[in-house]
Amino acid sequence: MAEGVLHPGWERAMPREAVLAQEEVHRVARGEQRETLLVLLWQAGLLAALLLGWGLASGRVLDRLFLSDPLAVGRAFWRVLLDGTLWFHLRFTLLETLLGYVGGAAAGLGAAGLVVLVPGLEPLLRPFVVVAYAVPKVALAPLMILWFGIGVLPKVLLAGTFVAFLVFLNTLAGAAGVSPDLVAVVRVMGASRLAVLRRVVLPAATPFVLAALRLAIPAALIGAIVGEFISSNRGVGYLINAASSRYRTAEVFAGIFGLLLVVLAMNAAVSALERRALRWVPRGRDPLGVR
Amino acid sequence: MATLPQPRAEPAAVAAPAVLEARGVYKIFVSGRPRRAITALRDISLEVRAGEFLALIGPSGCGKSTLLNMFAGLVTPTDGLVLHDGRPVRGVNTRVGYVTQDDNLLPWRTALANVEIALELKGVPPAERRARAVAGLARVGLRGFEHHYPHELSGGMRKRVSIVRTIVDESVNVVLMDEPFGPLDAQTRLVLQDELLQLWQGSGRTVVFVTHDLVEAIALADRIAIFTRAPGTIKAVRPVPIPRPRDVFHIHEAPGFATIYDAIWEDLREEITGRRPRGGDG
Lengths: 291, 282
Description:
- The complex is a heterodimer of chains A (291) and B (282).
- Chain A is built from eleven helices and no strands.
- Classes of the chains: A mainly alpha (291), B alpha/beta (282).
- Chains A and B meet through α8 and α9 of A and β6 and α2 of B.
């Protein structure tokens, strides 16, 4: 609901009451703004403290060679940014991550839809899925490189595998939670199995799918980076690997910082999607608080 | 307080044909480990007449909801026949409307979109379904709440939306209601009973209404089918001779209320308490 808007019915209220209500709406909105600002300030303070601690520890507690320090990292980041090194490598990592992320999410969602749609498929596949999920998928990386070379494809597949499992299992969990009564009512209204999937089960599973998409962001990145670590001649994983083998710690951190920006951007995209898709979910704040 | 002047009602659908019919229906559920067979319904035969308001009443667990689910095609009888307009019900029966105890609205759809889904699934074009949904919501006093999500509505409002969603589809000639007003507070219940009667009267639709509230059954129904405790059989079907239109807020004062109340309570008491009724009627 938009800020400062009263529910229908208030136009019938007494003038004084309507004024009070309007004031109360603004007071609550101001309070929320203040709270948001306060949280932002605290977050900035916390970040500053972390960076300061890092700077102070460097060279005093731990060897500068291994720890570097915020200023050196900043300078290294600036250098690889300006000479195009970072963008050159980040481009490949970004491509692998995004292709793996989108492809894996689509595959996971499609597979979950199919499993829900076809009766009897879920119990049939369960043991296979459990085993496949339990295998550490990083162990597949050498195989992927053996099969698909050292290009972009094996990294996309690795990232996609991570993402697909998360989305697949979470969507199934969400689908299992749909009220059978709700499904029965919609079936009686004339919905086919496919219509129930599209109009009831998938929307009901949206919070689960979005949670999976959030968890999948770092997972996709891990897939791409691990692939690059093992075998490649470009990508941020390669950049980090090469820099660390030459003890250029600041450059390693600069690479990590680049990955961080990717994660932040993808998180923001998922948050925007969440705000659009989950408008219908009542907002709770403090799970243990009184309201 | 004086009784309200009531117009003479037409006799409740005396020779109307059966729109729904159960013939010698049994339902045996198997569940648990070790497996146990439990009889939910035993030899049920019941005719629901076109256009009537029929209440099903009985102790909890007597199988009245199971019978309703059979009319909706959600449960198949172990033996016997269930007919809708003379044809056996096979699979989900999409020509009935179904209102459950929980409102079962889609939480991600606004009130308007929740009403529209019924028409969407029947292939009604968007402009028409929107217009009909808006009109339907206005009929139950929800103008201005079209774009509210279910969690922004009160329990009574959500129930109104779920009723409108059911009756907005004109291909539905029977509305099945399973304790629809159970979760509401006493005042809202009365208001909704009154609104339901106004929506039903003159609509030509048939209502089968499951309840465990005897006063509610008398206030609403033309006839009341009384179930025994499990395994459920139909003990009696009694007409309610109170004329329409009825005043649900003062139904206690309607002529004949006390007589029908006492008669059905005698039927029910034995089923609920397990004791023989006092006196000799039955």
